[in-house]
Design a protein that fits this description.
One of its GO terms (cellular component) is membrane. By secondary structure, the chain is of the alpha+beta class. Helix content is 33%, strand content 20%. It has nine helices and 13 strands. Strands 1-11-5-12-10 form a five-stranded mixed sheet, covered by helices on one side. A four-stranded mixed sheet has the order 2-13-6-9, with helices on one face. Strands 3-4 form a two-stranded antiparallel ribbon. The protein is globular and about 45 Å long. The relative contact order is 0.20.
């Protein structure tokens, strides 16, 4: 099977930027996403915050312990900016303005910047026409950030917010921007389709106490496509599914015991 996580780790090890965007290759970012994120309040607050060196006393119910500020702030700085993911739907859309009982075919050209949504408001219009939807709906938990809440946060002034926090949930696998140094590597025991990103995000949440914030001024989008053969076999090949589930259960036990993949130095 395709060594997807091995290739992801090679890319992370060869990368020379301070921050990385973990996203599938077939997604296109919204207009000016890079500049918007770099200039955002989130970036200034969570990614550019100065780490001061001093001792901080942490009080628990039973005792107190003194830890270095760098160790404490590293945990506090473990944040990820979630980019909402959507897909465009190839469909036949009824339009009475074209012909009385006619329709027009909508086939998206992802190479044409003028045909795909560039701003959240463009996406909202397509959503109302049922020409766009959250990526994979509720199947892969990209829906977890709640589409309506996201739209409320960016379109109406009484709700408007550049970003907002969400809680980690089982099977959550968002596309994220985060710091590269100290990021855990992907588990290379996973090959092909199934659990590879889910387990990685779980390690970040459970072992490194990552906090997740949904970005309100951008998104990524892809064209709806047929399921891959590997994805189909995940659902139809019982033996393969059992093997993958066994591996997932074993790694979940490791995570519960505090064991995870190495981090990028």
């Amino acid at each position: 099977m395709y060594p997807i996580n091995t290739l992801r780790n090679i890319a992370l090890s060869m990368c020379r930027s301070d921050y990385v965007f973990l996203v599938d290759v077939d997604f296109i970012p919204s207009a000016n996403l890079h500049n918007n994120v770099m200039k955002s309040r989130f970036f200034g607050k969570y990614f550019l915050r100065r780490n001061e060196s001093r001792n901080i006393t942490l009080i628990s119910n039973s005792n107190s312990s003194s830890v270095s500020a760098s160790s404490f702030l590293r945990r506090q700085d473990n944040v990820a900016l979630v980019l909402p993911a959507f897909e465009l739907i190839d469909s036949v859309v009824k339009n009475v303005h074209i012909r009385p009982q006619g329709s027009k075919s909508v086939v998206w050209n992802m190479s044409d910047d003028h045909s795909i949504p560039q701003e959240p408001a463009d996406l909202w219009l397509l959503f109302r026409k049922e020409q766009a939807r959250p990526f994979h709906g509720q199947i892969c938990k990209h829906w977890y950030f709640f589409f309506i809440e996201w739209m409320n946060s960016i379109l109406w002034s009484e709700y408007k917010s550049e970003y907002y926090a969400v809680e980690y949930d089982k099977n959550y696998e968002p596309y994220i921007i985060t710091k590269r140094k100290g990021l855990r590597k992907y588990d290379e025991r996973f090959r092909g389709y199934g659990l590879n990103k889910v387990i990685h995000i779980k390690m970040l949440a459970k072992l490194d106490f990552f906090r997740f914030f949904v970005y309100g001024n951008g998104f990524v989008i892809s064209k709806e496509h047929n399921k891959t053969q590997d994805g189909i076999s995940w659902r139809t090949d019982l033996k393969k599914r059992k093997c993958m589930q066994w591996l997932g259960d074993r790694i979940n036990e490791e995570i519960a015991a505090g064991i995870g993949t190495p981090t990028i130095t």
